UniProtKB/TrEMBL annotation:
SMART domains: AAA (SM00382). It catalyses: DNA(n) + a 2'-deoxyribonucleoside 5'-triphosphate = DNA(n+1) + diphosphate. This is DNA polymerase III subunit delta'. GO terms for biological process: DNA-templated DNA replication. SUPFAM superfamilies: P-loop containing nucleoside triphosphate hydrolases, post-AAA+ oligomerization domain-like. Keywords: DNA replication, DNA-directed DNA polymerase, Nucleotidyltransferase, Transferase. InterPro entries: AAA+_ATPase, DNA_pol3_clamp-load_cplx_C, DNA_pol_HolB, DNA_pol_III_delta_C, DNA_Rep/Repair_Clamp_Loader, P-loop_NTPase. Pfam families: DNA_pol3_delta2, DNApol3-delta_C. Residues 25-170 form the AAA+ ATPase domain.
């Protein structure tokens, strides 16, 4: 079994392999589900299997000519298409190049696989261009669209693909995998998973990047601000270097915990269990109107951040931090 393949996707994998053995694979697959659960790895595992000339029950052989080309990283029959920069669309030129490539190059005697990720980055013109390939992809060609938000895809694209749904795995399985993969204590794995909305690969990235360090600095700064030990402008300057959407996400999750403590009368936060004391204190002191107002503001900033190219990060953070510090007054 390929180590790309995650244990929680075994059913989907076996079903596709059976389809492949019966020579009944479609031209296009839509792998759909939340980000960070492993759809991209699933796509790669499938591509590896289809490209191999001598696959075994355990997966690709790893030593045929085709496997060698793939492992060396330049297999002509494996094409990956993604936006040129994160958050940008997949351009129509990229799809046109793909069409030319599919028409002009000879296959290496096996399957040809295109992995497009994330497919929701197709804009109207690139999606229209892609429709041409979806109608007539050619022999033994498989398009794999990896999509975190299928609702954003054109219906005509969706309807031409066989859709496979992926969900977040059960907590127990995900924690076991994180413990095993990252050599972690299970408490720590559980916390990472909660912070990642149950998506194990997102939890892995959180652990491996300096993102957790950023979260720690953010939380420390927020606590200092409540105690009057830090200045809004200094903190805004510091946080301005962080991943802003991620910061908003964390702030949002703090507020959700506070709201839960206030409304449900419980003492423990659900997500930010490492910040229990601060969250309890805010829940005691702050009026719910202020908390909901800040939650709304965060939501607005999230939306505008995704639409605008260059927001004034300093100003945005200063406004949010001021509103946060006001919670304890
Ligand atoms: Zn092989």
């Amino acid at each position: 079994m390929s180590d790309l393949l995650l244990p929680w996707f075994l059913t989907q994998w076996q079903r596709l392999c059976a389809q492949h053995q019966a020579d009944r694979l479609p031209h296009a697959l839509l792998l759909s589900g939340p980000a960070g659960v492993g759809k991209g790895r699933f796509a790669q595992a499938l591509a590896n299997l289809l490209l191999c000339h001598e696959p075994t029950a355990a997966g690709p052989c790893g030593h045929c000519h085709s496997c060698e080309l793939r492992i060396a990283g330049h297999h002509p029959d494996l094409v990956r298409i993604s936006p040129e920069a994160e958050g940008k669309p997949i351009k129509v030129d990229q799809v046109r190049l793909l069409i030319d490539h599919l028409h002009s190059t000879a296959q290496q005697g096996g399957y040809r696989v295109v992995i497009m990720e994330p497919a929701e980055a197709l804009n109207t013109s690139s999606a229209n261009a892609l429709l041409k390939i979806l109608e007539e992809p050619g022999q033994n060609t498989l398009l794999i669209l990896v999509c975190h938000q299928p609702g954003q895809l054109m219906p005509t694209i969706r309807s031409r693909c066989q859709r496979i749904d992926f969900t977040t795995p059960g907590v127990e399985q995900a924690v076991a995998w994180l413990v095993d993969t990252l050599a972690l204590e299970s408490d720590r794995a559980e916390q990472l998973l909660r912070l990642s909305h149950g998506a194990p690969l997102r939890a892995q990235r959180l652990y491996e990047g300096d993102v957790l360090e950023q979260r720690k600095k953010l939380l420390t700064g927020l606590a200092d601000l409540l105690r009057g030990r830090a200045a809004v402008t200094d903190l805004a300057l510091q946080f301005g270097k962080f991943d802003l959407l991620q910061c908003l996400d964390w702030l949002n999750s703090l507020l959700s915990d506070i709201i839960r403590i206030q409304l449900a009368g419980v003492s423990e936060p659900v997500v930010n269990t490492d910040m229990t004391r601060m969250l309890q204190a805010v829940a005691r002191q702050a009026g719910s109107a202020k908390i909901f107002a800040l939650a709304d503001r965060i939501q607005e900033e999230r939306v505008s951040l995704m639409m605008r190219q260059n927001p004034n990060r300093q100003l945005l953070l200063e406004r949010l931090l001021l509103q946060w510090s006001d919670l304890a007054r």
